[in-house]
Amino acid sequence: MAVASKTRNMLEALVKEGSFKWLLSKRSSFAEEFEELDKSPSAGKNWIHELSPVANIVVRRCSKILETSSCELQESFNAEASDAIKHKLWYARNFLEYCCFRALALSTQVMDHLADKKFRRLTFDMMVAWEAPAASSQSLINLDDDLSVGVEAFSRIAPAVPIIANVIICENLFEVLTISTGDRLHFSVYDKYLNGLERVIKRMKSQSESSLLSAVRSSRGEKILEVDGTVTTQPVLEHVGISTWPGRLILTDYALYFEALRVVSYDKPKRYDLSEDLKQIVKPELTGPWGTRLFDKAVLYKSISLSEPAVIEFPELKGHTRRDYWLAIVREILYVHRFINKFHINGIEKDDALSKAVLGILRVQAIQEINSSNSVRFESLLMFNLCDQLPGGDLILETLANMSRSRELDRCNNVVAGGSMCSISALAMVSNLGFVFNSSSSNPNEAALLVGEVAVGEMSLLEKAVKESRDNYKKVVLAQETVDGVKVDGIDTNLAVMKELLLPVMEVGKWLLCLVYWDDPLKSSLFCLFFTFIIFR
C-alpha cells in the first residue's frame, strides 16, 4: 500500500506541477493513459519504478494485450532473463524489449492486425519508449514536439514484426522512410508505410487465391507475388530470337511465367524456372528495333534449359524504374533458392527462407505505393539481393543457414528456441497473414517453434554478421573515395591538358547517353526519327 500511495502521490505531483501539461494539451497517444493512471486507485500496481513514464505506459499496454499485470511481467522477466540481461545499466531497456516482443508475438496472430490503428501506434510508441526507457531518462523525450524515432530504435523494434522490417535491410529501409525528414522517422510516414503494406498484402492474397495459373501452380502451391502487362499503358514484351510478343508477366515464389497475348486470350504460359540449379543468369539488357541495342529497359533470362535466352522488355517513356523493380524481385526469388540449394535447407526452414523473400517483396511494393521517387534502389531493400552485393554477404547467409540448422535441432529435441526472449519468425508472420506454405501446412504449430532475428538484450549472431559486413562496406567505400581523390589530386600537367582537349568529346558522349537512357523523351524521339529518316533515304 505504501508503494501504491507513493506512486499515486508522484503522479499527482507531476500533474499539479504541470509536468504533463504539454502532454495533455496536445492530446498525444499517451495523454489519456496518464489521466487514467492519475485517477486509478491501483496506479502503483502498474508502475515500474525503473522505467520512465513513457516506458511504463507502453509496458501497461503490453500487459493488457497479454492479460496480465506489469508486475507479473516483471516477475516473469526476472525469472527468464540471465544475470547479464538484468544488469542494472540495461535493465529498463531489456525489460521493455521483453514486454514488447511478447505483446507483438500475440498481437500479430490477429488477422488484419496492420489495419488496427492501435497496433500501428503501439509499435511506434515502443520505439519512442526504447530511446528513453529508464526513469532517469524521462527528460530526454519532449512529447510537446512531433514525436520521431532514430535508426537504433527502429532497428530493434521493427524487425520484431517481420513484415515491417528485418535485421539485414532495416537500416536501408529506415533511410528510405526518412529521406525527407532528416534521419528521424515520424509517425505520419510510418503510418503511411504500414497502410501501404496492408494494401499490398490484400492484393497478393487476392492474386494467389485467384484462378490465375491455377493449373500449373497447384503442384507446388506457388504463390503469385507480382503481375504486370495487364494494363495497355504499361505493356510487357517478350523477345525470343527475332520474334516479339506482348503479354502478361507473372512472378511466383518458384518461377517466372510469361503468357503471350493473342487476339482475345492468352497463350499457354512459358515457365522460366528460378528454383532449380539451371545455371540461370538474370541481368539487365538493352533492346531496340531490328535487333539494335538502344533502350536500357529489359531483363535477360538465360539458363541451360533454354536454347536461346529470353528477353523481357518493360517499355516506358522515361527511365527504367519498372525494369529495375522486376530485375530486383526476380533476382530475390532466384537468390533465395540458391541459398536453399547451397545449404541444403528443407522443411519449415525452407519455408521460413522463402517467407523472408516474400516479405521483402511486399515491403518493396509498399515503398512503391508511398514513394513516387525513382531514386529508390530496390535491391537494397531485399535481403538476398543485398547479401549478394555486400562484402561478407556470404558470411551473413552462412550465419542464417547455421541459425536454421540450430533451430531444427532444438525442434527435434522439443525445445522452444528462445522462449519469450525472442521475436517471432518470418514463417509465423506469413502464416498469421493468411499464407500457407507446403511444409508448414502439414503441421501449422511447427511454425510457432521458430524464432525471429531479434533477441532481448543482445545482438544475435545474424545482427553481428550484418554489422561486420556493413562496417567492411563502409571501409571499402572510404578507401575507394581516398583512391579517387589521390588520382584527381596527383594528375600531371599533360594529362590535365589532354582532358581539357577531350572535354567536347566527353560532352557529346554524355549527350548520347542521355538520349539512350531517354532522360529527355522528346529529344530521344527526335533523334530516333532523324536517324530512321536517314536510314530509309
Number-wise, the strands total: 12
Per the principal axes of the C-alpha atoms, what is the gross shape? globular
Distance between the termini: 99 Å
Uncertain regions spanning at least 5 consecutive residues: 14-26, 411-419
Helix/strand-derived category reads: alpha+beta
Radius of gyration: 27 Å
Helix content: 40-55%
Please give the count of helices: 21
Portion of residues in beta strands equals 5-15%
| Main beta-sheet annotation | 8 strands, antiparallel
What integer is the average pLDDT?
A: 83
Q: Notable features of this structure?
A:
two-stranded antiparallel sheet; 537 residues; single chain
Can you walk through the features of this model?
This protein is α+β, with helices and mostly antiparallel strands and 537 residues long. It is built from 21 helices and 12 strands. It has helices at 2-16, 21-26, 31-39, 53-65, 70-80, 91-107, 117-131, 151-157, 170-177, 187-209, 214-217, 321-342, 347-370, 383-389, 393-412, 426-432, 438-442, 461-489, 493-501, 503-516, 521-536; strands at 148-149, 185-186, 224-228, 236-240, 243-252, 255-260, 270-273, 281-287, 295-302, 310-313, 422-424, 451-455. Strands 3, 4, 5, 6, 7, 8, 9 and 10 form an 8-stranded antiparallel beta sheet that branches. A two-stranded antiparallel sheet has the order 1-2. Strands 11-12 form a two-stranded antiparallel ribbon. Helix 15 packs antiparallel against helix 18. It is globular, with a radius of gyration of 27 Å. The N and C termini lie far apart (99 Å). Mean pLDDT is 83; it is low at 14-26 and 411-419.
